[in-house]
Amino acid sequence: MVLKIFFPQCCNTADSGLLVGHWIPGHNSAVVLAVIHYPFIPGQVKKYLSELQSQTQVDLTVLGSWSMPKEGQEGMDSFLKDLSTIFPQKCWLQLSREIGKRGFICQVVQNNGKLLQDQEQKNGDESSEGDKIILIHYDQRKVMLSQLHPVQDVGQKSDIEPSELRLVFQTVAQSQPLFFLDKYDDGPLKLTHWQSEGREASIIAELLKQASVPVCIFLTWLLSLWHWFCSFRILHLHPVLFISSKLSTCVQSGYRTVHFKTVFSPKKAATHMEFMRKANIFVSFLLDIALGLLLISWLYRENRISKLADTLVPVADRVAKELQELLEWLMGAPAGLKMNRALDQVLGRFFLYHIHLWSSYIHLMSPFIERILWYVGLSACLGLTFALSVLSDIVALLTFHIYCFYVYGARLYCLKIYGLSSLWRLFRGKKWNVLRQRVDSCSYDLDQLFIGTLLFTILLFLLPTTALYYLVFTLLRLVVVLFQGVIHLSVDFINSFALFAIGQRICRPYRLAGEQPVAGGLCCVYCMNGCVSKLSMLPT
């Protein structure tokens, strides 16, 4: 017979006491979860285990005794062996270790008093003859937090029988109330498990969990008020919806509302994936706020807002002058091209007038630019993404004249192309059938062909002038779109940056561990960080 004992590394130096754990059903294996230190009252131990069984739905029991005698405890071994009569078991484990030695003495006593095994285990080595005991050390903290084998729902049934290691991982995961610490005093029983060393941190973590519930409820109430405000009928009119869909600030506000609704929900995450999603959103939000505060601290130092406002108007004048020179170049003979002078002059003066209007608008707003920038800078309190979204909207407003140039040029160019395509079909005796959405044959008289020829000639000779203006303004618009695209890419990167998952990967990779099936009916568990100190090929 081969008996496997899964023993936590955190209990290697525990004081003498009782081994609390669970026998794996269907397998000759036992999982040690904690050590109850001496002194204790057996009645209190039984009451404590019965309460834990009702909470965890795991058959927790006293597996045996753990002996690591100190000075003045010479008779501790015999006392712990006699406890098998108070806590009757089919097999009573007796683990002992001497101070300063790495080896363990493992003994298994059956209920009839027969000694099944008495073999000293050195560094997890197993005996070579007779019955064997395999002592497997595992890191309880990593196994508890790894989510390597998630616990299945009670109603969920699987045709495949779970492997031994899966049952071990599920046993540790389901025994979470055993490791729960929310007070400094242990009470009548003192235990050693993976949370024993970080008692203060565990208490703080549990208090923060309890305090987060009312905070989440309050923030959920604030979100409900925001949804109530957004449900006003006037905000759902088509012009308002169209404008809000074009403003990056409104789009970012919608994203943040959805994120807040997900993170601050009082419901606990049902799956590990949902927990990781909430944690990633929350950490990205904290990073966003931290970067926004850094931006504010930089902007409001050394009078940078005033310097930025003083620089904005000269830059706008410089851009207007460059555009004016570009239009004057187009109104001449750009790159030696022969343009239609009449159309060239009309388009050039039309666009020059728009530049004049834009420059007048900038100079009219110049006394208020500093105050506007001062209040706009405060939007960084909501996060760097809000500040970048506001910057994108400001760029869109400042380059509105370039957008108008692009729209005018694109519309005029599309009309020319549409007219030329229609007249080209006229030359070939074709026409576009609107009802059937296809090109049909058609006979034209002489007057129609003559007028069509004149119009085709006029549009064809005017096309180079229109195409040149369209090309130049498309390139200008492309520069603005690329700049806004970089801003939007930065915003999306901050919103979706999985900083929490990356931190888990670097600091706690066992939280992201997984399993892979192996052919031949065997299952091998890969733990990147050593959750189990001895890996075995176990039959499924």
From TrEMBL:
Q: Which UniProt keywords apply?
A: Membrane, Transmembrane, Transmembrane helix
Entry GO CC: endoplasmic reticulum; membrane
Where on the tree of life does the source sit, at the highest rank? Eukaryota
- UniProt xrefs under InterPro entries: PigQ/GPI1 (IPR007720)
Keyword Cytoplasm attributed: no
Might you name a Gene Ontology BP term for this protein? GPI anchor biosynthetic process
TM region(s), chain numbering: 281-300, 372-399, 405-427, 448-472, 478-502
Record's protein name: Phosphatidylinositol N-acetylglucosaminyltransferase subunit Q-like
Q: Which organism is it from?
A: Sinocyclocheilus rhinocerous
Q: Taxonomically, what lineage is the organism?
A: Eukaryota, Metazoa, Chordata, Craniata, Vertebrata
